[in-house]
Amino acid sequence: MPVVDLTVNFRISESAHLGRDLIKDLHAFSVETLKKPSKYMCVKINEHALMAFDGTFDPAFNLHITCLGVDVQQNKEIIAAYTKFLSEKFGLPGDRGYVRVVDPGRENIGPGFEEDARRYRHRECENQDTRNIM
């Protein structure tokens, strides 16, 4: 269920085709780095955001990664890998933004896929105390 949400304060590309290529690159990188199946990976790039960092409008970023099952040691490696990726892809210095990695806990995430949602609801019902259900 990883969600990779990148916001930058500059225009990434003049071409929609190039923008889609960047999404694909970030998706492939995320699958490899987070070691999660492509099927569940959601990647979003918000470009040209009104965002200042250190009081200036020089190129900056905010990357928020929501992913089940990451721990503190993995966070350090993930942050370093994404910072390097952003530097190589966009020329962004690592000191012009933040990478946040959050494990929301399985109980705080639900699938959007119909079949998976049914299994999820079924699993939740099995875990409930049936004495409280009317």
TrEMBL record:
Keyword rRNA-binding recorded: no
Pfam families: MIF (PF01187)
Subcellular location: Secreted
InterPro entries found in the cross-reference section: Macrophage_inhib_fac (IPR001398), Tautomerase/MIF_sf (IPR014347)
Molecular function per GO: dopachrome isomerase activity; phenylpyruvate tautomerase activity
GO cellular component, one term: extracellular region
Main location: secreted
Catalytic activity: 3-phenylpyruvate = enol-phenylpyruvate; L-dopachrome = 5,6-dihydroxyindole-2-carboxylate
EC number: 5.3.2.1, 5.3.3.12
The entry's keywords: Cytokine, Isomerase, Secreted
Similarity comment: Belongs to the MIF family.
Protein name: L-dopachrome isomerase
Annotated source species: Saitoella complicata (strain BCRC 22490 / CBS 7301 / JCM 7358 / NBRC 10748 / NRRL Y-17804)
